[in-house]
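Worked example 3. Consider a protein that binds zinc ion.
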Amino acid sequence: MGSRFDAYFFFMLLLSVAAAVLPVRHIMFEYRLADVAERLIDHDNIDVHCQSYFDNLYNLGWAGFVTRGSAKITLDVRTCNDLREYLDHPAQANPYELYSVHVLTHETMHVAKIYNEIKADCSAFQRNHRTAKLLGVPEGIANTNAIMIHRYRSPRSSYYSA
Ligand SMILES: [Zn+2]
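Given these inputs, the predicted complex is written out as structure tokens:
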């Protein structure tokens, strides 16, 4: 009889830890985003759900959405991936990564019961620097990011007339 803690045991242990790490990281990231949204609008119970590629089949192309009256923010898989990338290098963020910050802020405005898209977007522009700071980005970079978001986003937004 071999030891109870043989190579097979350690192999299975390693496999189960590896299988647990990704979902735990995913959940921790959702908690982190929810905490940012809560602090941004001084709200207690916001949920953030990052969609999987499978969920993504049903989201009709939105970067994020909030059902009217709910405190649950659903973010597209690309939005969450871009947010992760953004947090790896906020000073060198590309327009997609910057836009993901705006999406989180914009959806948080819907939780704050601003349902008019133009007002939600405008309110988000005024708070993107705070979202970035709450995500842990240094103030100077957060402020520059917010200005860049406005520069990239406002001329292209479908929410505004010429
Ligand atoms: Zn919206």
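Take a moment to read the result before moving on. The chain has a mean pLDDT of 90. Helices lie at 7-41, 77-88, 95-111, 117-125, 128-134, 139-153.
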